[in-house]
Fold MFS transporter.
Amino acid sequence: MDEMAGTNRTLTFWYLLSIIVPVTLAVRASNNMFQTEVPLLARDYLGMSELEIGSLAAVASLTTFVMSAFINARLPSAGRRTLFVASSFLYAITFPFFFLVDRYTIWLVLSLAGFSLGSVMPNIITSASLLPDRLQRERLLSLYTLTLSISLVAGPALEGYLLRSMSIRESFLYFEVFPVVAAALSFLIAFPKETGKRPDTRGVWRNPGFRVSVLNIMTYNIPFAFILTFGGIYAEEYFHYTVSAATLLFSAFFATSMLGRLALSLRPPSRLARIMASSVALTLLGLLMMFISRDSYMLVSSFLILGVPHGLTYPVSVVQLSRTFDESGRAAANSLFFSVMMILSSALPFLLGLLVSYIGIRLSFAALMPVVAAIAVALAASIRSLQGMPERGAAGTQG
């Protein structure tokens, strides 16, 4: 088992798929559960204010960032494997304590859960990118991101079913099965070959391929954070949707997202720049339609359109990382990429809340368009600087 987990020579597509899919489902479903339920737990059971609830989300993202950027990204392969297994068990041990927290201990429990995920999530991405054949590697990465989408659909459905007959506190005990599954399978997750060298994180930041991945995800993460936070409120206040109807809008959103990732799984992309440009165009179109929407049909169409780039940007970014870095460099690249996402997750809700407080939700959709366009210009410049650089791990060759 150790030999298989430590080298890519014995790895096969089906072995990696059989481990990565259940681990990803278990981690993402439980992670999404505490992201959505902790705010309700804090408000309804612990009497915490909106500012305290926002601070909880920021602390969770900050501890994830610290683990991912400053610990996981700097360790050699053997050290990261030990840390990954330990973090998986820490996550499983921590999760049921959400059943017992009060307004003081919740800070510690949430910090430990977030801290452990800073090692778990980026190493799953790295494991999915170990295959030497580029076509198989990118199909596996697409299936990994498709699994994330399935988790976002199945997890909330299970939450809704459980909450019909039990409290939020009790639901954490039932969801504990997912972290336990992840911990049990953590020994089987594959890691890159040991090189004896510590990853060069400075080289990652300077690499234009890394900048392309980060700027690509930023073109969508900023509007996505806004849609996730204020999309339902927009539907209720401006279009008089019920809470149930507003929730169904997100079902439509994630459905088109899943279809986009399914398409990438069936046919791995060859020209990433073309997909990035299409995603930016769809994002700008969706934001424009949100801004000018005056009826329910246009609002629903906006959600459907914006779901497509949500499904494309993340898998395209991780595929770009796998093409840019060789096997020994992907771990550091994935950790730092995940860290950037955590920084955005920490800062964006606060900044976007300020924007809405000054100009309102409808105008905020319009205000986001020049921001996305500016990032897209920087993305295009980084893509041009990347042209001519050799790709790592071309189809049929060693990465």
